[in-house]
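Hi P.,

Sorry for the delay on this. The queue was packed all week, but I finally got your sequence through. Input first:
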Amino acid sequence: MKKLIMILIASWVSSAAATQNPIASVASPEETLGVNVYLSSNGEPSYNVVYKGKDLVADSRLGFELKNQPALTSGFKVVAAKKSRFDETWEQPWGEERFIRNHYNQLRITLREVFGAKRKLDVVFRVYDDGVGFRYEFPEQDSLTTIEILHELTQFNMTADHTAWWTPGQAGNQYEYLYQKTPISKMGLVHTPVTLQTNEGLFVALHEAALHNYSTMNVTGGADGKINATLVPTSKHQPIAVKLTAPAVTPWRTLQVEESAANLVTNYLTLNLNEPNKLGDVSWIKPAKYVGVWWELHLEKTSWKSGPTHGATTANTKKYIDFAAKHGFAGVLVEGWNLGWDGEWWKPGGGNNFNFYTPTPDFDVKELSRYAAEKGVYIIGHHETGAAIENYESQLDDAFKFLNQNGMKAVKTGYVETGEELVNGLYHHGQYYVNHAQRVIDIAAQYKVAVVAHETVKDTGERRTYPNIISREVARGQEYDAWSVDGGNPPNHTAIIPFTRLLSGPMDFTPGAFELTLPSRPKNQVNTTLAKQLALYVVIYSPVQMASDLPEHYEQHLDAFQFIKDVAVDWETTRALGGEIGEYAAIARKDRHSDNWFIGALTNEKARSLQLKLDFLDTGKKYTARIYQDGKTAHYATNPGSYEIREIEVTRGDELVLPLSPGGGAAISLIAK
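Then the structure:
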């Protein structure tokens, strides 16, 4: 038996072991992935990751540079190396997958300096069959109580200069950029998730999980596939990135590993590395679809500021409430309802004028709350801060009490700014801002309000622990189609984000545009077909989905609008049917509250035909497949509004052929008989 164990270990231990023996190793439950930990002759810790016997991550350093203390990089000895196993299946209260298995083998390395202060540092690795997570832990100790981190020195040294999809880090528009595709060596400072395709065809998503009381981790690409962790500093003038008091832990550094891009869609590593729900009963959090006073603002049909063009009036809001009630939508988003919008709120300091519990005179919140409740609808509040965090925090309790008292079950928050600095001069997405975002989540939970956060810190799976942080933007959404100087999102954008941004969590993309040529915006248009807009409701996951267009545009296409009315937002399970990054995506999801399935498929600027096998359907059931597809002459640039609808009966194992036009897509409702 001992000989057999040694043979199995040899299948995943790094080839680097020929020159340096690991101090400890751990393999995933099925021994697909393995981690080796090393300690050099100078006591410098490092690790590598092996996939099916081949190096995936080459030898990569661990450690920190600290303020006013020697670096935690060398001079260590191993005090203990403890292994453990864990296997559970847990249930999401809402989500893209109801039951998720959390199955890993863990290795905890306890390090202590040989000389000097003899400080202690633990490194914990959790190895799954589809990924690796590791973090640092600072035990309680007299020699290290206050920890001021200048730089986290973690590396992720890939074995070659692989292909990467990324957006720039610490740039003026935060996360709201189009994705670039380059070798690692050309990507510079970038946000995570960053998705890699190795020269062998393996897909790796590099990210972090459980980001609490710490600075956001960006990464920097270097020569030969080397990648370095790069923490967002406090400010331009304050180099400290993180200040902690021991005992303390860092976020998990994560590597999701799959043999196809499509499989990344259903990789739940980041969720598993977060702690279970801390809010208790969360039955008050309801996934839902909504409409609202939003798209008309971006099209400049109405305005956020008060006056004759004000959009957030009592009369206009009632129009949306009536439309929502008529078509079965739960919420109505209203922006510009509160005091503070009349000045230049987007400029530094302008957000200090916002008041989050005082409506404008033409917005009768009591009457609207009554009217909405009478219609079975609720108003979704909106808190734009202009990145003036102190002003917002001074009103948090009153603001969320106001939402609660007026039946507003959800709020959209915003932190628009013109650079990477907050109004107080601190960096957006540094430790200060991360802690602010948590305070908003905490007080929202006290008042039973769900949060949809825009311009916020990226998702790292916190929704498992705090299920009221229900969705985020944190990418370039559909609003850019209305006014971006580059003419809007290109067709490949929505074929990239399922394999990049969406790996971090739900996205409030705001799909559903039916008027695609935007007559009021002649330099812009929505660069999709109408059928692709329907497909986005399945491909881009969020438990809150907006039907973003104006009611009158939906009234002109009630047959196509039916899909938006029918599609679910809370799912029993998800199946990735196929996809290539930037090329196409096809995803099927089963409604959590019925036997119905829904499929979304979309392409980039290239026309293609997809053949989908319905082998995921329930055995013995018949389904009516209502297929919303591109018309024969549909084209995102020249004929975006052309679509066809057809119905057929299908069962498990049948195949569908979907013709996708340039910039097009298809949406399918599979209604169980």
